[in-house]
Design a protein that fits this description.
The complex is a heterodimer. By secondary structure, chain A is α/β, with parallel strands linked by helices. Chain A is built from ten helices and 23 strands. The model of chain A has no long low-confidence stretch (mean pLDDT 97). The chains are: A alpha/beta, B alpha+beta.
């Protein structure tokens, strides 16, 4: 009998896992004891961290996009298709073309989607750098922006890359200073809770930097609506902010399939935060943004979780107890300007402690972004 | 802490979520319900004791009651 592992989603988690399994299960793949299928609804793998740099003219969206068939090992069956239904009882996926695909093990790595329509006026009045098209449009706005009020509003969590909103305002501050425009540009940052970041240690580190650099802060600000004609952002708490350029971090959701399959709310799969096994179905794992673990929605998390699930699946396939667990490991570089950055490493038990920003760490971040393609190939 | 017979319109079970998960879950649910509706938040995070009250005060919603159960807290919040 051949065990069939199906990975749904070809982002960081899915690509890393596919290549991990190709290597780890080499003998079993060779002997036809197992086969691995990676399903993605498009031909490309997209490395989203590139988008942060697009509005500042530092990168192009194409820099973050490569064909999956160039990244994924030849021993993996790559299927470009869209899944329309997950039946966890019969362990079967229905595809868009009405065919079906059965699995013995399913790994959901479907990631985040943006839901700007949940906030009236946001799609019309706001810009973002959480999509290729959003980053490109924001670039056009930012490059011609010479005076006025930029408001970055974090609208709901979880969202991809929790550090990126801080990075954006730090970079914008530095970018306008270096161009001699900062005195004419006011920058305001809003956050839903009583501090500037969900993690209290990162918030405690970031707040003094924001104060030093004249970045206005509005906390307990949950955007309720945007009036694109009046250029006004209104919060649930009753605060209005007038803007000239609104950069919104839109509400995020997982894919509908997850909720329809009864695996979790809002597209996030309820999992054991250590084993990454779905709570509501057998033989189903989730990794990356899709897994509701409480860990950040970050590429490093998806990367480490893919390694854990790869080891657990190999144990399952070989009939051994699965002992590998995810302990919340997260690594993030945090840009603090156009040529300086900090770095944090933390897990479920050990909180982050950002290191002093330096140019070296900034270059380390850019170097990693270039070498990311080795990560996607399972080599780094 | 009081025993209450308030009937919530919606319940958010955020037990097991780390800070600020419970507060964000509450805010998300308050966003979705109608004025006058009551949301019951279940949280086992101690930080919720201060987070929830601070936010409800800030947003003008009313924290009707907080109950201490065996292994979690129950917050009843009415949307203004």
């Amino acid at each position: 009998m051949t065990d069939h592992i199906v990975i749904l989603g070809g982002g960081t988690g899915g690509a890393v896992l596919a290549n991990d399994l190709a290597d780890r299960l080499d003998a079993e793949l060779e002997a036809d004891e197992v086969r691995v299928t990676l399903v993605n609804d498009g031909p490309d793998h997209v490395y989203k961290p590139v988008w942060l740099y697009v509005p500042f003219g530092e990168r192009e969206p194409a820099d973050g996009r490569r064909p999956l068939d160039e990244l994924v090992d030849d021993r993996i069956d790559l299927r470009i298709d869209r899944v329309t239904d997950i039946d966890t009882d019969s362990q079967r996926l229905r595809m868009r073309d009405k065919t079906s695909l059965s699995y013995d093990y399913l790994v959901l790595a479907t990631g985040s989607t943006l839901a700007p329509d949940e906030i009236p006026g946001l799609a019309e009045g706001g810009h973002d750098y959480y999509s290729e098209s959003g980053a490109e449009t924001l670039r056009e706005e930012l490059l011609s922006f010479t005076e006025g009020h930029i408001v970055l509003s974090v609208i709901g969590t979880p969202h991809m890359c929790p550090a990126a909103p801080l990075e954006f305002v730090f970079m914008a501050d530095d970018w306008f200073r270096k161009r001699g425009l900062r005195e004419d540009v006011e920058i305001t940052y809003t956050y839903p809770i009583q501090r500037v970041h969900g993690n209290p240690h990162i918030a405690e580190w970031a707040r003094p930097i924001m104060d030093d650099r004249d970045i206005n802060v509005e906390t307990f600000f949950n955007a309720e609506s945007v009036d694109p004609e009046a250029n006004r952002l209104t919060s649930m708490e009753g605060t209005d902010i007038d803007y000239d350029l609104l950069v919104g971090i839109p509400p995020h959701r997982g894919v509908d399939l997850v909720e329809e399959a009864g695996l979790g709310d809002s597209g996030w799969v309820e999992v054991d935060q250590h084993t990454l096994e779905a709570e509501n179905a057998d033989n189903v794992y989730a990794i990356g943004d899709t897994a509701d673990t409480g860990a950040p929605n970050a590429g490093s998390v998806a990367h480490y979780q893919a390694g854990v699930v790869g080891r657990r699946l190999a144990s399952d396939i070989r009939g051994r107890p699965a002992t590998a667990t995810y302990e919340g490991k997260t690594l993030c570089f945090v840009e603090t300007g156009m040529d300086s950055a900090s770095f944090v490493e933390f897990d479920y038990e050990n909180p982050p402690s950002p290191v002093p920003p330096s140019e070296k760490i900034h270059w380390a971040k850019l170097a990693y972004n270039e070498s990311y393609w080795l990560t996607a190939r399972g080599l780094l | 802490m009081t025993e209450t017979d308030i009937q919530p319109t919606e319940t958010v079970d955020a037990r097991g979520s780390a800070c600020p998960g419970p507060l964000m879950d509450l805010i998300g649910k308050i966003r979705a319900v109608e004025p006058g509706d009551v949301v019951l938040l279940l949280s086992d995070n101690e930080q919720s004791l201060t987070d929830v009250e601070e936010w409800t005060n800030e947003a003008g919603n009313e924290l009707l009651a907080v109950e201490e159960e065996d292994d979690h807290y129950a917050f009843y919040v009415e949307k203004a």
